[in-house]
Design goal:
alpha/beta, five-stranded antiparallel β-sheet
């Protein structure tokens, strides 16, 4: 089943066109890794798909429901707020820099949205939070505060917080970019586990070995466009486009 469809997406900031005609689809249970140089539009793409930015043109559908469309006059149309909220609840986002509330405990960071936005009881939300913390290897951190956590622990709490809303698809924006190699391993282990459980994920990453191991498909972006996409083994070891070849060679020469 197709869970995400993106067609002809455009986004500019002033005169800077960041996304230029992006189109791709994601199937349920699929892991898609998005790679490319800094400034290629990867993070902006995720922000548009999570309704953190409005698009200039294009169509996005989530599980068959239209999140945004463009009419024949070029007008961008979003559904009414009630319908948009239902779509938003299907989407989970994990940011580079965790974005935990510093004045909330780990438990409250995870339970706040399910209670306030999702309408769950406090008891139900806490039960789910404890299960997720155990899954993340953080059962002893429920009452800790973000300042008491390592970067790897903070990112795992951020993943638990996103999962607490039971999203249909989980987006990661460079989830290990702020971490040292040892802590990176902790987070990648969690994402591997989610992939094994058939969690649908779109992961913007600079971890090429991880992308080759876990992703079902790799998308290479440059200058706001998808240059190439396909099997991770092909894209990362034998790309067909010269720009992709140059990017992969640049990584291997470091």
């Amino acid at each position: 089943m197709e869970i995400l469809s993106v067609e002809n997406l455009y986004k500019s900031f002033d005169d800077n066109e960041v996304l230029h005609g992006i189109s791709f689809k994601v199937r349920e249970g699929e892991v898609v890794a998005v790679i490319g140089p800094s400034g290629s539009g990867k993070s902006t793409l995720l922000r548009c798909l999570n309704l953190l930015e409005k698009v200039d043109r294009g169509t996005v559908k989530v599980a068959g429901d239209t999140m945004v469309s463009t009419n024949d006059l070029g007008q961008v149309l979003y559904p009414p707020e009630g319908a948009l909220k239902k779509i938003r609840l299907r989407l989970g986002m994990v940011f580079q820099n965790f974005n935990l509330f510093p004045h909330f405990s780990v438990m409250r960071n995870i339970t706040e949205a399910p209670v306030i936005v999702g309408g769950k009881s406090q008891e139900e939300a806490e039960k789910t939070a404890l299960e997720l913390l155990e899954k993340m290897g953080l059962s002893d951190k429920a009452n800790a505060y973000p300042y008491q956590l390592s970067g790897g622990q903070s990112q795992r709490v951020a993943i638990a917080r996103a999962l607490a809303m039971d999203p249909d698809i989980l987006f990661f924006d460079e989830p290990t970019s702020a971490l040292d190699p040892e802590l990176t391993g902790e987070v990648l282990k969690v994402i591997r586990k989610l992939a094994a459980e058939q969690m649908t994920m779109v992961v913007v990453t600079h971890e090429m070995a991880f992308a080759q191991e876990v992703a079902d498909r790799v998308i290479f972006m440059d200058k706001g466009q998808i240059i190439e996409e396909g099997d991770p083994g092909e894209i990362l070891t034998n790309p067909s486009h010269e720009r992709t070849k140059a990017f992969i060679k640049g990584l291997s020469d470091r």
